[in-house]
């Protein structure tokens, strides 16, 4: 159930074995809020691009092929595991609010002594990144949102799916919150002011071009899968209007699992955003 729930909700589990192994990273550790957080960095520079994983998995699993193909020159590329994932430790885990997840990220950024920050979240990680950018607008110089969730998606699915379809989604969301990620998708989707960003902050929204339909494994009806897909696409249009400095790009050959098929597009836009942050 663990893998299926994670896959069908936000598609953060990977079947492929390409890319470097998790052991290849030079992990370092810091304590934030009584939790031991693992992180790793490559390259050097005043700009730090920080990868923020989606719900339910560690950063390596989310970005392994992106990291394998990265060659940071003139900037620092970092990633971290939120408490309870990967090499990070979280004793007696409990469900955490978006404010708690934001503050955990803030503690790591402070520890890393970041001068200029480019945030690169995937999926649920978009909530965490946007919440941080809202509270620390002077620190964040750009964001590359890789098929990230928008807060409108939750209610749109609930309003448009059949009762059996929404019952399936609710079961998955509740299971993730209580047994796997200890992160609350419904709570994260209940905010709007928490995610308000500067109007001139450079943002690139990368949206999947191939539907993510693993949810069919739950035997969800085709009509409800269509709702699942259409409401996600509609939410991406809202992300494209985050501010007056947002660029929207469709990843034509990538599904939600972008790292499996087209990590190079992500790297291209990360490096372009880093170059903007250097100006």
From TrEMBL:
Q: Which InterPro entries match?
A: AB_hydrolase_1, AB_hydrolase_fold, Meta-cleavage_hydrolase
Q: Where is the signal peptide?
A: 1-18
Domain AB hydrolase-1 as annotated: residue spans: 56-166
Q: Which domain of life is it from?
A: Bacteria
**Mind listing the GO molecular function terms for this protein?**
hydrolase activity
Q: Which keywords does the record carry?
A: Hydrolase, Signal
Q: What is this protein called?
A: Alpha/beta hydrolase
Q: Which organism is it from?
A: Pseudoalteromonas rubra
Species classification: Bacteria, Pseudomonadati, Pseudomonadota, Gammaproteobacteria, Alteromonadales
């Amino acid at each position: 159930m663990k893998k299926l729930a994670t896959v069908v909700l936000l598609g953060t589990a990977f079947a492929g074995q390409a890319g470097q192994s998790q052991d290849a990273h030079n992990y370092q550790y810091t304590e934030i809020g009584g939790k031991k957080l693992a992180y790793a960095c490559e390259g050097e520079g005043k700009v730090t691009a920080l990868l923020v994983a989606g719900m339910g998995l560690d950063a390596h699993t989310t970005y392994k092929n992106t990291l394998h193909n990265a060659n940071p020159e003139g900037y620092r590329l970092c990633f971290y595991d939120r408490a309870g994932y990967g090499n990070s430790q979280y004793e007696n885990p409990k469900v955490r609010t978006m404010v708690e997840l934001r503050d955990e990220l803030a503690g790591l950024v402070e520890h890393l002594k970041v001068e200029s920050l480019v945030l690169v979240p995937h999926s649920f990680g978009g909530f965490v990144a946007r919440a941080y950018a809202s509270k620390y607008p002077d620190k964040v110089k750009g964001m590359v949102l890789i098929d990230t969730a928008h807060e409108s998606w939750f209610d749109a699915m609930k309003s448009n799916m059949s009762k059996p379809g929404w019952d399936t989604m609710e079961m998955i969301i509740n299971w993730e919150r209580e047994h796997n990620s200890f992160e609350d998708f419904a709570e994260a989707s209940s905010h709007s002011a928490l995610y308000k960003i500067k109007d001139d902050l450079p943002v690139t929204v990368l949206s999947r071009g191939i539907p993510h339909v693993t949810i069919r494994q739950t035997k969800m009806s085709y009509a409800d899968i269509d709702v699942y897909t259409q409401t996600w696409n509609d939410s991406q249009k809202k992300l494209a209007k985050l501010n007056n400095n947002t660029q929207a790009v469709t990843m034509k050959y990538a599904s939600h699992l972008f790292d499996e098929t087209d990590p190079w597009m992500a790297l291209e836009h990360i490096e372009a955003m880093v170059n903007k942050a250097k100006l």
